[in-house]
Amino acid sequence: MINYLYKLYLGEKNSGIKRRLGHIVAVMVALASPASAQDAVLGSDFSSLEGSSEFETTLFPEEPRFGGQADHAVSFAVRGKAVLEWDDTVIGGSDAVLTISPFVRIDALDSERNHFDLREAKLDLRFGETDVTIGNDFVFWGKTEVDQIVDIINQTDGLEGTDGEDKLGQPMIRISRLVDIGDLSGEASLFYLPFFRERTFLGEESRLRPGIAIEDNNPRYETGAEEWTPSFAARFAGFYENFDIGLSAFHGLSRDPAFEVNPGTVDPATGSFELRPVYGRVTQLGFDGQFTSDATLWKAEAIGRFNQRNLAFVREDYFSGIAGLEHTLFGVAETNADLGLVFEYAYDTRGDDALTVFENDAVLGARLALNDTQDTSALFTATVDTQTAETLLRLEGERRIGDSAKLSIEAGAFLNTDRNSLANDFQDDHFLRATLAVFW
Q1: pLDDT, position 90
Q2: Distance CA 217, CA 222 (A)
């Protein structure tokens, strides 16, 4: 089943989306068929089918900086999740869970955003205190708010947002086991990642894109096996009293590409060209931790990465770290609302050659949770470069509507951008995005 679904996913990019989605939906419907049919065909003990249909619109109040771009965008997305569970299977008497989570987006104005992905297509097996996962899955590492620098397993889905939080499903074999070392309790995990997912990029007609177009259909690998270059990772995540810590190691193709001129796109007459991503092998050691002190959460992440090409296309060993706190004021103004105050500082030794905008930045933020029946919440952050005063503003909010819908709001502004910064290309791309999701 997983092999079949993965072959469907590996089809040509941005083509046959409806056909492949139809195949996936057919499989999901079969998995969610009545219990008697499942027992006859698959013998499952439990099944569920859920998902959402989303309508998204984005407005850009400023005129576009580059030709061919629009002042608004409209798209439709479908997310699904089908689950089958078996108790005491023939595989060593283990419990087994099959999960399939397809995702598709169709943009009415920007065909570059049309894409399909199997976010999850995995089989989870449990043998006592040991778990084994085979297939596409999500793995999240990190504690801080502004960025999660230790998070390296899944590739960023550059078509879905600007904050890097949307990820592509990653093929893997993961073995995890619960361990206790004195008063320290946690989970140790080993990862084998046989196939590499290339980052997706917005096209020339898209807003919030880099100034120089990126041709992602012709990447260059610095390894002979290219996308079949395997990666390996290990992590321990545990708790000790009020401490929550994670230690991780990774060796394989970097999820952060460097860029070079794509030879086939150079126009001698105009001097125009496109860039192409370059993927090379790196090693990363990481730490993430959180300490809870009453109403205050102290957070930190740090990595050392070796052999990573920087923005100047030079291989470099570097250190990056984020540290800060979130203090919560409960029952603000004698209401049910809670207000969290956020402060973080991000530093990257690569400076202006970093592949991120968070190289020497302070972050101030506020998180409001009304704790009402509609689960209304909002998060506002202001990221300020301590050297140039470049400021990135971001607002995220959401509220449930009835029992089966949710309205989400996202807004961003790019102020006082520095001409040497990665954010300079977005200086006219302030945006307001609204998403209405209906759950089924």
Answers
A1: 62
A2: 16
Q: In the structure encoding, which two tokens stand for residue 267, read together?
A: 């126009």
Cα pseudo-dihedral 383, 388, 389, 395, rounded to 10: -30
Question: Averaged in consecutive runs of 10 residues, what is the pLDDT profile of the chain (440 residues)?
Answer: 47 48 50 46 73 96 85 93 85 84 92 91 92 96 93 94 86 96 92 96 85 86 96 96 96 96 83 90 98 96 97 96 97 94 97 91 96 96 94 96 96 91 88 96
- Give the residue among 170, 176, 257 at the shortest CA–CA distance from 222: 257
Q: Which pair of structure tokens corresponds to residue 158? A: 């550059």
CA 110-117-436 angle, 5° bins: 60
Instruction: Give dist(CA 308, CA 355) in Å, integer.
Output: 10
239 beta partners: 185, 244
Cα torsion angle, 429, 161, 152, 251, sign: negative
Nearest to 221 by CA among 275, 274, 150, 276: 276
Strands (E), 87-230: 95-107, 115-127, 130-137, 170-181, 184-193, 220-221
CB 148 within 8 A of CB 289: no
